[in-house]
Automatic annotation (TrEMBL):
Its main location: cytoplasm. Pfam families: PcrB. GO terms for biological process: glycerophospholipid biosynthetic process. This is Geranylgeranylglyceryl phosphate synthase. It comes from Thermococcus barossii.
Amino acid sequence: MKLELGRVESYIHAKLKREKLHFVLLDPDDVDPETAGKIARMSEEIGVDAIMIGGSTGAEGDVLDGVVRAIRESSNLPTILFPGSHGGISRYADAIFFMSLLNSTNPFFITGSQALGAFTVKRYGIEPIPMAYLIIEPGETVGWVGDAKPIPRHKPKIAAAYALAGQYLGMRFVYLEAGSGAPQPVPPEMISLVRKVIDVPLIVGGGIRTEKQARAAVEAGADIIVTGTAIEKADSLESAREKLEELNRGIKG
Ligand SMILES: CC(C)=CCC/C(C)=C/CC/C(C)=C/CC/C(C)=C/COP(=O)(O)OP(=O)(O)O
Ligand SMILES: O=P(O)(O)OC[C@@H](O)CO
Ligand SMILES: [Mg+2]
């Protein structure tokens, strides 16, 4: 049995020894391949650490492949799939967050979709990275699509219990998700309790739009910050660059 970590996961751990990481999420349903390529190149220039690709709706097939290929052609950053289901797998990506939505009420999002996608991941030779995915209020689209019972914002202990359960089940990352475009990010008190309880790296995303919010999440104990909407919604590539720089400053200090 081979238990070595894959290339992307080793890269993440090596970098985490020195700094907090910034992953940029691109949704193939919202950005065309050309723009995705440009944002990925800019991200690399600015010091972002990886590009995640996915969406809860429509990020599949040709549309997904086109965006992943464009990103690979324009930058050397690792590409990590962030699938809404087994439909969100592309042969062109380096790795996939092989995630289980632990607080879903629907077994499809806990183990079902994973079983349907497992052989595809193996056939394509994509590196699977096991991850516990937890939806925090409000949860937005992904909370609704994923049939989640969102964890109340003022109940950090529930999040910590799920996170520790995820680690004990063998998951090597925990992701606290407020939902893409959430009006408020995950509360710092919740981030710090989860950080105290688990040993694996903690990813936080959803609703992080400013340098201040990014810094607050990192200071509370997040290891990796995911940003998507703030960059996607910029009205020009120039303002996307400024936003990326601002968020990166908050994360890297
Ligand atoms: C590992 C495999 C094969 C499947 C896992 C499938 C699971 C558990 C999915 C969780 C539920 C889900 C719908 C996740 C979507 C994650 C995601 C890509 C969210 C962010 O998407 P955005 O595109 O930013 O948000 P919108 O979809 O709201 O635009
Ligand atoms: O789009 P935003 O709000 O940055 O959220 C990023 C990510 O956590 C969504 O899955
Ligand atoms: Mg989206």
